[in-house]
């Protein structure tokens, strides 16, 4: 099934990120007085060529304490994820090896504020070649806690809240389904919550497949689910699906019938129970963005859009704890640009036109209304990571040291302390052209406790503002204490 508006252009952007060549950064002319500056932490691979910002869909996994997830290539050609906190790296322990099931790959989707990681490990049946993902949590020291999954089934944990409850899905018995939500190689899925050591299905909206995504600290879960098993030709002979919020033990269709179309889903859920996403119009060509909270759905497109009436191509990506929403809107000329819906007003974020960009995609808005994402040329695909704040957008490449040796192409999260996780391409050194996950730390005292980054080694061969982990090899220790009482119990 094609989730055509789930992440809009993100798949194309990710592909462009992988093939984008390293480009020399130019110092920006003009004043940057409305934006701060950043030190750069370049996060290394595990012996392989590249490292990437780990996380679910377009989001980079970064919590408010600065713990960030990294997907690191290994010398064996696989990918083993690790978490990084204040200069210390903790590799994620792989799933236990079983008879005929081997594999060491791990994947991070999210990290809660206690450093608890949600994701999955992957093993392969050596007799059949079939791969199985198993949902897991990891403690801040990298110790794995596999989550209950039926035998011969696939599962993934998508998100984890600060009480240790995890959301995601299970594909029981690995039953083939060409209309699945991109699960495995096309498998039937059930949305679930893992709590108290057990997996509980969330229910149904009337169809077979459901997909759990975001869980907040209220224990609510958002996602999308098929509303029937009736196939529609316009959907590639697959059933329709609507967005849901699960609360009080019940799955609720939060936009029945979407906006006259057959497809809808959520892209984020905040801790105040506000969900954002999209719904299609009749014909499945156009879509509107929405905000849902307290049982009420708001059609954000009616508050503002860059498209012609009834021909809008809008989606909402993220919402902060103030209820301010960012998303994307397609112009009448077919350009895709970031937008902000805030307190009933509509703001176009535009793009970095000085760099030749004519499209943009915002990813995250924090509680300070700082927005990060990617600005790019719709024609060439060349990308620049951006921050939008105080009413203006800036190229993050102009806010880091000139000799940082990296071109920032994507910003995937900004936490409430202003720390940014993203992606870049090395522009110098023996690994020039390789991809690297990066962490950007505000300088000038904008975040107490970050000055000097305890435990991180300065790269003395370059700028003192450029922070490298020593040779990429760091003790797998943790700085922030973890309270096991938080794992499966509410306070």
Q: What topology emerges from the helices and strands here?
A:
Elements: H1 10-19, E1 38-43, E2 47-53, E3 68-74, E4 79-85, E5 88-91, E6 101-111, E7 117-125, E8 131-138, E9 144-146, E10 154-160, E11 166-171, E12 190-195, E13 198-201, E14 210-215, E15 221-226, E16 241-247, E17 250-253, E18 260-269, E19 275-281, E20 287-293, E21 296-299, E22 314-319, E23 325-330, E24 336-342, E25 345-350, E26 359-365, E27 371-376, E28 383-389, E29 392-395, E30 406-414, E31 420-426, E32 435-442, E33 457-458, E34 466-468
Parallel strand pairs: 1-34
Antiparallel strand pairs: 1-32, 2-3, 3-4, 4-5, 6-7, 7-8, 8-9, 10-11, 11-12, 12-13, 14-15, 15-16, 16-17, 18-19, 19-20, 20-21, 22-23, 23-24, 24-25, 26-27, 27-28, 28-29, 30-31, 31-32, 33-34
Explain what you see.
With 491 residues, the protein is an all-beta fold. 2% of the residues lie in helices and 44% in strands. The protein contains one helix and 34 strands. Strands 30-31-32-1-34-33 form a six-stranded mixed beta sheet, with no helix packed on it. A four-stranded antiparallel beta sheet has the order 2-3-4-5, with no helix packed on it. A hairpin with a 5-residue loop joins β14 and β15 (221-226). The model is unreliable at 1-31 and 445-491 (pLDDT under 50).
């Amino acid at each position: 099934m094609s989730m055509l508006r789930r992440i809009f252009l993100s798949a194309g952007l990710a592909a462009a990120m992988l093939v984008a060549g390293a480009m020399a950064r130019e110092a920006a002319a003009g004043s940057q007085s409305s934006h701060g500056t950043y030190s750069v932490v370049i996060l290394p691979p595990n012996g392989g060529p590249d490292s990437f910002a780990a996380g679910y869909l377009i989001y980079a996994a970064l919590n408010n304490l600065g713990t960030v997830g990294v997907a690191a290539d290994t010398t064996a050609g696989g990918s083993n994820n690790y978490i990084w906190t204040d200069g210390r790296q903790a590799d994620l322990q792989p799933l236990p090896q079983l008879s005929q099931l081997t594999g060491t790959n791990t994947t991070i989707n999210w990290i809660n504020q206690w450093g608890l990681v949600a994701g999955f490990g992957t093993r392969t049946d050596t007799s059949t070649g079939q791969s199985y993902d198993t949902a897991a949590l990891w403690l801040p020291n990298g110790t794995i806690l596999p989550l209950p999954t039926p035998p011969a089934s696939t599962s993934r944990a998508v998100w984890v809240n600060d009480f240790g409850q995890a959301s995601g899905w299970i594909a029981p018995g690995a039953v083939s389904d060409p209309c699945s939500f991109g699960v495995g190689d096309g498998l039937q899925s059930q949305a679930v919550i893992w709590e108290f050591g057990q997996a509980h299905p969330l229910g149904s909206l009337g169809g077979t497949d459901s997909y759990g995504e975001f869980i907040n600290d209220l224990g609510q879960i958002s996602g999308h689910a098929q509303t029937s098993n009736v196939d529609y030709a316009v959907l590639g002979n697959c059933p329709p699906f609507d967005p849901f919020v699960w609360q009080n033990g019940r799955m609720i269709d939060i936009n029945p019938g979407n906006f006259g179309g057959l497809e809808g889903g959520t892209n984020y859920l905040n801790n105040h129970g506000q969900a954002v996403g999209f719904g299609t119009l009749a014909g499945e060509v156009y879509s509107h963005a929405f905000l849902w909270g307290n049982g009420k759905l708001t059609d954000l497109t009616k508050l503002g859009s860059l498209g012609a009436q009834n021909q809008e191509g809008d989606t909402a990506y993220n919402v902060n704890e103030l209820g301010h929403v960012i998303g994307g809107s397609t112009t009448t000329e077919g350009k895709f640009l970031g937008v902000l819906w805030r307190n009933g007003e509509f703001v176009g974020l535009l793009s970095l036109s000085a760099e030749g960009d004519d499209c943009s995609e915002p990813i995250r808005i924090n509680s300070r209304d700082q927005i990060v994402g990617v600005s790019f040329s719709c024609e060439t695909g060349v990308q620049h990571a951006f921050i939008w704040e105080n009413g203006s957008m800036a190229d993050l490449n102009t806010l880091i040291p000139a000799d940082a040796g990296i071109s920032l192409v994507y910003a995937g999260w900004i936490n409430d302390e202003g720390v940014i996780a993203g992606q870049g391409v090395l522009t110098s050194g023996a690994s020039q052209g390789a991809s690297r996950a990066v962490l950007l730390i505000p300088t000038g005292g904008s975040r107490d406790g970050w000055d000097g980054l305890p435990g991180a080694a300065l790269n003395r061969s370059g700028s003192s503002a450029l922070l490298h982990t020593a040779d990429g090899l760091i003790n797998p220790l943790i700085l922030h204490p973890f309270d096991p009482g938080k794992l499966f119990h509410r306070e």
